[in-house]
Design a protein that fits this description.
Strand order of the largest sheet: 1-2-3
Number of helices: 0
Oligomer: single chain
Number of strands: 6
Shape: globular
Low-confidence stretches: none
Length: 70
């Protein structure tokens, strides 16, 4: 699988409290099938993805959060 981020931003996408904007997608591409699907949305404005030694995905998120691991 190949993963990539997309920071799609809109003022209409907010968290459940209505206070903070949410945006972005993490996409998953399968080179064997040619299919691209959304892995996570909203992604917290993920802008950069890497994997640790155990295979956990680590994404750099917006300034309001430190990061996330899936």
């Amino acid at each position: 699988m190949i993963y990539f981020s997309d920071i799609t931003f809109t003022k209409f996408c907010k968290d459940p409290s209505g206070q903070y904007l949410q945006a972005g997608n993490i996409w998953q591409y399968n080179p064997q099938t040619g299919q691209t699907t959304i892995f996570r949305s909203p992604s917290g404005m993920a802008n950069g993805i890497k994997f640790d030694r155990e295979g956990n995905m680590i994404a750099a998120l917006a300034p309001t959060t430190v990061g996330a691991c899936w």
